[in-house]
Amino acid sequence: MNLPKLRQGVIVVVFALFCGGAVGQVEIKGTVYDRSALYAMPGVSVLATSGVGTMTDSAGHYHIRLGREDSLYFSYLNKFTAKFAVKDIPSVYPFDMSLQVDIDTLPSVFVRPRDYRQDSLANREEYRKVFDYSPNYLSNMKMPKGSRGGGMGMGFNLDMIFDAKKNRQMEAFKSRLEWEEREDYIDHRFTRALVKRVTGLEPPALDSFMRIYRPSYEMIKSFETEYQYYKYIFDWGKTYSEIWKEEHPN
What we know:
The chain is an alpha+beta fold and 250 residues long. Helix content is 44%, strand content 18%. It has 9 helices and 10 strands. Strands 2, 3, 5, 6 and 7 form a 5-stranded antiparallel beta sheet that branches. The protein has a 3-stranded mixed beta sheet with strand order 4-1-8. Strands 9-10 form a two-stranded antiparallel sheet. Strand 2 and strand 3 form a beta hairpin. About 9% of the residues have low confidence.
């Protein structure tokens, strides 16, 4: 296909910019430890001067993609490390970091939650007939010999049509189970331990925050990274802390 020269030039420029951006990206990964370099630290913010960010997982691991002109730094409990130029970080080795924090001073929030995924699968298995339920208003029926279409045809399932009450009950039960599954997922992600660690709130302010700012299932799913989700909790926690202090001066 012959394209006009102007369009060809635009495509070449866009392709070059795309490739240049991809080539300029560097993947950095590593583990964050405490002062002793013996204990990995989950929940540490891994940030860049460009605004990109992520957090360490439950094993203290992180990975992030940054431009070569960017800089990387770490933050925990409002304490920041120095900034490290990406171009000076060797990409062939893990970039581990040891923070000036003692493990015995960390908040005791590393409680192993129940396995939501296994609970969800068990729930689906127990109510398989309900989750797989779909009203079948059509049924196979035999056709008279010699009729067009052979000996089989489609007809209406009269039992399903007249048993409308049962259909409504099954659909309502299915909706209820799906709602409970979404609520369990929110409980699994939006825990008191996590909110307390991120916001620093204490009861009763913490209890009030958990009720008012409980995210929906769709909201949690909309966050592309864990960093965005934790930032949502941190930002609203900071706002609510000021509101709480004004309403409870004593």
